[in-house]
Design brief:
heterodimer; A: about 90 residues; Ubiquitin-like (UB roll); five-stranded mixed sheet; about 25% helix; globular; B: about 260 residues; alpha/beta; Rossmann fold; Aldehyde Oxidoreductase, domain 3; seven-stranded mixed sheet; four-stranded antiparallel sheet; 7 helices; 14 strands
């Protein structure tokens, strides 16, 4: 599946699109672990000390708000982005 | 209005390519050709605008900028071809041996040009919209006969909060395009479902936008002013809260993501 990253998250990770592979029964949380293993610098930018996502980091699965416990499918588009600041 | 800059090597005549594109695009809508005229000594200040349809040629010696000219043309044109504006941030067709960063398309010469391919490519780009083009579109609405009000909001790049503030040179906007389009569509549909609100148009520019230039527009066509004002305010508020667009600020002495300063 593919992660899309935006703004400073893409800068910290070094790319704005990153493909990860996880087992068939994986969750969004597993896909996030795979992403952070691949891009270690991103870990402290998105995870709080207790291992949960910071409230200000948005997590989307196929364009809709998602949580780490959700199932993830191989053709999913996952996204992480900071608070929006358009306008 | 879709915009395409045609870039050729210095000294080459772009006319054959421009004419072929204009002929093809004219089948789809109104076409304008904007040339920076090299025969004028102070070419930076002079722009020749050749309008489509009746093929009028207008030469202006005003100091109108290319963005301002495009804003005006967008009211009643579907396509603009620009020639001689290599320094402008526009989708660009590279012709022959010309150095262009990340061209939309590249052709060897006019004989190598397939206008259908170029047409398909520019339809994937962000159209140039302006307050004028959106208001003109609202006035073309099927419901315009029931509308006694058009209210608008324009967001622009503020150079300074106050006289002591480090001046902002430009803002750069990045967007999660597919999700942004879905959420803008949802905002539009929700507002248009209100009684008396006929048409809502929302447009946010992306890429680098200089100080003083426009960023975002909300245009509401409504029966009466109250529902028009309310829908404009709710539209821009929801856009700023919900649409995944990210702003990087470039000041005279720094560069930073806006959300990092707001946190």
């Amino acid at each position: 599946m593919e992660w899309k990253l935006f703004a400073d998250l893409a800068e910290v990770a070094g790319d704005d699109r990153i493909t990860v592979s996880v087992p068939a029964d994986a969750t969004v949380g597993d896909a996030l672990e795979a992403l952070l293993d691949d891009r270690p610098a991103l870990r402290e930018r998105v995870l709080a000390d207790d291992g949960t996502l910071y409230d200000h980091v948005n997590l989307l699965r196929n364009g809709a708000d998602a949580s780490l416990a959700d199932d993830a499918a191989p053709d999913d588009e996952l996204a992480l982005f900071p608070p929006v600041s358009g306008g | 209005m879709y915009v395409l800059d045609v870039a050729t090597p210095p000294g080459d005549d772009p006319s054959a390519v421009v004419d072929a594109l204009r002929e093809r695009f004219a089948d789809e809508g109104a076409v304008a050709v904007v040339r920076r005229d090299p025969s004028l000594a102070d070419a930076d200040d002079r722009t020749t605008v050749r309008l489509g349809g009746d093929r009028r040629r207008v030469t202006t010696d005003s100091r109108a900028s290319l963005p301002g000219t495009l804003d005006d043309l967008a009211r009643d044109h579907d396509f603009a071809l620009t020639v001689g504006f290599d320094d402008a941030a526009l989708p660009r067709l590279a012709v022959g041996d010309v150095a262009v960063d990340d061209p939309l398309a590249h052709v060897a010469d006019a004989a190598d040009l397939d206008p259908d391919v170029v047409l398909a490519a520019i339809r994937e780009t962000e159209p140039h919209e302006s307050l004028g083009s959106l208001v003109a579109a609202a006035k073309r609405s099927a419901d315009e006969r029931f509308a006694g009000a058009i209210a608008t909001f324009t967001g622009r790049v503020r150079a300074q909060e106050n006289a002591d503030d480090a001046p902002t040179e430009a803002l750069t906007f990045e967007t999660y395009a597919d999700v942004a389009a879905e959420r803008l569509d949802d905002i539009r549909a929700t507002l248009e479902a209100r009684d008396g609100v006929h048409d809502v148009l929302l447009h946010h520019r992306t890429g680098r936008i200089e100080a003083g230039e426009d960023i975002v527009f909300v245009v509401v066509l409504a029966g009466h002013r109250r529902e028009a004002f309310r829908a404009v305010e709710d539209g821009i508020d929801r856009l700023k809260d919900e649409v995944p667009i990210f702003k990087k600020e470039v000041t005279v002495d720094d560069e930073f993501w806006r959300h990092e300063r707001d946190a």
